[in-house]
Amino acid sequence: MYFSVIVPVYNRPQEIKDLLSSLEGQEFRDFEVIVVEDGSKISSEEIVKEFTSSLAISYYFIENIGQGFARNYGMEKAKGQYFVLFDSDCIIPSQYLRILHAAIADRNLDAHGGPDGADVDFSPFQKAINYSMTSLLTTGGIRGKLKNPGSYQARGYNMGLSRKAFEVSKGFIDPNKAEDIELSLRLKKLGFKLELVEAAFVYHKRKNNWSSFFAQSFSFGRNRINVSRYHPEAVKFIHLLPAFFLLFCLGILLAAILGIQQYKLGLGLLGLWLAAILVHASVLNKSLIVGGLSIFTSFGQLCSYGAGLLFEYAIKSVKG
Predict the structure, then answer these.
(1) 52-67 pLDDT, tens per residue?
(2) Is 141 a member of any domain?
(3) Fewer Cβ in 10 A, N or C end of the chain?
């Protein structure tokens, strides 16, 4: 057995069905699938049973311990040489495992991370979320596209590591607070080779609504600071930009309230950025609707992420 695909799931049976359906069509066939039900109240067991004839699949139910530790549980049960980790809301292109297998051999990889994107049949809102999280105009395009693949920090929705890397590192040490980034940094410090495999992408079919997306972005900001408790170098200048963006927007508002005329310059710069997003997202997605939604998802994501950064940094400072 070469690959063991590990998928934690929590109250999302339909998502796991879509993911498993995509795994049925993999061109590379030497793999097993391990589904770890992380204390769900809505079981996926019956869904998993539907795939026992087409996939080498195992199902485990455990008490809720968080996605990082659920992944550890799955890797402990795995039989493969290399563990591939997906979130339950991902759809896997048919060439994924074939591409990854070749990359591991050609580049002598011990671990990897891959990008995510939106498929053509995703809703306009899902495409707008994808744009705000991956665009050069929002996150700098660092989520899955880097000149130096060795500097990539893998994300749990699409990453993997060898059996040896897992046995040495012991896997995730946090259940759900940027545990993937922490493991990425720790694996590199342990001497393992982790790189971005850009061609090994997944379609990320997020089920967010407006409030859950902004709440998630807030958590992502907090989590980045949380990782710095283990790895102080985890927070770089580019990660702080959303906090500066939020302060810039608040500065515009404060200047307008106080009657300071320079607020017009700031408002003009903000307007130019939003207009660029409208045009860019509309062209990329061939949809003015997606472009319009991307204005709000991009603005809200950066503000929420920035607020999370500042909030967690304040807590860290108070605790010393």
Answers:
(1) 999 999 999 999 999 9
(2) no
(3) C
